[in-house]
Amino acid sequence: MSDFIWYNGHWLSGRQAALNARDRIRLGDGVFDTMLSVGGQAIYAEHHFKRLKESCAIMDIPFTMGQHSFNGVVADLIRRNKATDARYAVNTLVTRGAGARGLMPADDVTPSVILMIAKAPAPEDFPPVHAIIAQTVRRNEGSPLSRIKSCNYGDNILALNEAKQRGANEAILLNNAGYVTCASAGNLLVAMGTRLYTPPLSDGVMNGIQRSHLVAQSKVEERSLLPDDLKNAEALYLVNSIRGITPIVKLEGADLPRKPASHFL
Q1: Are 191 and 234 in contact (CB under 8 A)?
Q2: Are 166 and 254 in contact (CB under 8 A)?
Q3: For residues 89 and 73, what is the distance between their CA atoms, to the nearest angstrom?
Q4: What residue ranges of the chain are covered by domains with CATH 3.20.10.10?
Q5: Which pLDDT belongs to residue 180?
Q6: Number of Cβ atoms within 10 Å of the Cβ of 142
Q7: Nearest Cα to 212, choosing from 65, 41, 38, 50?
Q8: CA torsion through residues 132, 138, 141, 145, sign
Q9: Could you tell me the fold of the domain covering 4-120?
Q10: pLDDT given for residue 37 in this prediction
């Protein structure tokens, strides 16, 4: 695999510096997206682009790239990096661009847009998911940022640090009202009876692509959930674009039932 990135219309080596030292990413002023590519084909590219545009709109970042241009850059990124032989993660980063000191965004900004690609493990090559329910941090369901992939991922990192300290590798976050939201790196599916449930976006949940497809197809139902619902569930699953649907095998150190998600879909 080669190592090329796309930055504001230019192709650079992945080892070259791209962002200005004064880029407002230092303030978390940006959004990002992670999309799966398999055998040289980007999966759900239109849906990822739509969510990226919506996230930029929430942050009021002027992202002017169109779907056709985005698809072309992604295809060229895959080709230039010879990334057609396996599974790859395509990352898109959009920041407000460079700015002067201070929080207030300037009126005339030039966003920074970067696309990069890296090899992704097969789902079976990821370690089994051992999760905790984070106690050190909660998601703010009242903030629009809880529902997008903004560059403000400090809460997720704090939750993962807690998981690591407690001998786990994933953290499930609650919101300020005590309801379940999502994991640090994906949405949650909870098997109860014969159905799969997932917390609603209004509880402070990131709008994952895989999650939105399952809800739209009526394969998963939205429902507010409490920690006891997780502990008493028939099975728990982590879902994101790279891993797909993955069982959570331990919660708070206790073994969970292992049933294929297809049993409930």
Answers
A1: yes
A2: no
A3: 14
A4: 125-263
A5: 98
A6: 12
A7: 50
A8: negative
A9: D-amino Acid Aminotransferase; Chain A, domain 1 (3.30.470)
A10: 98
Mean pLDDT to the nearest integer, 193-209: 96
pLDDT reported for residue 41: 96
Contacts 24+ apart (CB under 8 A), 143-147: 143/204, 144/58, 145/58, 146/175, 146/181, 146/204, 146/205, 146/206, 147/201, 147/204, 147/205, 147/206, 147/207
Length, in residues, of the chain: 265
User: Does pLDDT of 1 surpass 80?
Assistant: no
For the structural domain made of 125-263, what CATH number should be given?
3.20.10.10
Cβ(246)–Cβ(237) under 8 Å?
yes
Is it the case that residue 228 has pLDDT exceeding 90? Answer: yes
User: Mean pLDDT, the chain, as a whole number?
Assistant: 95
Q: For residues 173 and 238, what is the distance between their CA atoms, to the nearest angstrom?
A: 13
Residue indicated by tokens 């790239």: 65
Render pLDDT for 65-109 as a digit per residue (tens, 0 to 9): 999 999 999 999 999 999 999 999 999 999 999 998 988 888 888
Residue 16 pLDDT exceeds 90: no
* pLDDT value, residue 263: 85
More confident residue, 134 or 17: 134
CATH 3.30.470.10 in the chain, residue ranges: 4-120
Whether 237 has a pLDDT exceeding 70, the answer reads: yes
